[in-house]
Amino acid sequence: MSTVISTRVRLARNLKDYPFPCKLSQQDREKVIELVKKAITESNSAIANDFHFIKISDLNPRRAVSLVERRLVSPEFISESDGRALLLSKDESISIMLNEEDHIRLQVIKKGLSLEETYKEADRLDTLLDENLSFAFDEKLGYLTQCPTNLGTGMRASVMLHLPALEKSRAISRIAGNLSKLGLTIRGAHGEGTEPQGALYQLSNQVTLGISEKAAIENLKSITAQLVAQEEQARERLCESIEVQDTISRSLGVLKYAKLIEHGEALKLLSNVRLGIESGQIKDIDSAVIDRLMLDVEPATLSVALGKSLSPHDRDEQRAKLIQKRLN
């Protein structure tokens, strides 16, 4: 399913002997960080040496924002740096946020539609932590979390979807209303409160209480398949239009030859080109190249890659150069 760019599974956990992060003292925040860090890095697991430990207070603003842009942490996580830390795998497929809304926010990201595999990896890490830590758990309520909406499994599974045809046909709002009745939600790429850019949408489960992880995964997988089918049908009709074909060709031309490209424009043009690739109009570019560019053209990520602060004008220039290099 090329419509599905990536899959993410996130687990929320708290240590039973400590208050939730909103009530934690600075000293106890450091204790929680050290306990979780040791549970991973001093374990007998093969992944023990696979993580970078990052104190958020040690990051400059550009690097912190870049983590958000690459969907490795939440925007809320970097809004406060004291007493917060991150365990990040070397390939950046696993990130463990410490002392965000909960003591532990563990997330695993994999390419494409791979809900079972992603959950299996997250569950393996959860088991590793559980062997060394005591989680806050209730027989009736399940895992205890600061926000009641995460009680139960504490799991949020999501898929990142590219839905240009459904977006252009203005079907997203109708779909969102129907999804809420099924216990799912569809949002912008960075989650709650974010606007979609580049026709990227995050579909995720809302219900965590009274449902098993397996049932939640199966429900999300089923609805994803239905959304993908709707998108593919809408694409067939959309891409028959000479105007749409022209838009795709012009978008590729601008990306290949423009000297300045603003962030929002870049995402829109990249989305059009991805549509052209998936519809068969563009044959010499892999959609994986476009998916990577959609992350790498983000403002802070671009500055971090170049190792310096950039003015908006300089960013637009460097963004254009990066895109041209990748596409040509």
List the helices and strands and how they pair.
Elements lengths: L3 E10 L12 H16 L9 E5 L5 H9 L15 E5 L4 E5 L5 E8 L3 H18 L4 E2 L3 E2 L11 E8 L1 H5 L3 H10 L2 E5 L11 E6 L7 H26 L3 H16 L5 H16 L8 H10 L2 H8 L5 H16 L1
Antiparallel strand pairs: 1-5, 1-8, 2-3, 3-4, 4-5, 6-7, 8-10, 9-10
Helix pairs in contact: 2-10, 7-8, 8-9
Outline of the structure:
The chain folds into two domains: 4-233, Glutamine synthetase/guanido kinase, catalytic domain (Creatine Kinase, Chain A, domain 2, 2-Layer Sandwich); 242-327, no CATH class.
Q: What series of H and E elements makes up the topology?
A: EHEHEEEHEEEHHEEHHHHHH
Number of strands: 10
Strand line-up in the sheet with most strands? 2-3-4-5-1-8-10-9
Oligomer description: single chain
Provide the domain count: 2
Strand content: 15-25%
CATH superfamily of the largest domain: Glutamine synthetase/guanido kinase, catalytic domain
Number of helices: 11
What is the CATH level 1 assignment of the largest domain? Alpha Beta
Global shape: globular
CATH topology of the largest domain: the name is: Creatine Kinase, Chain A, domain 2
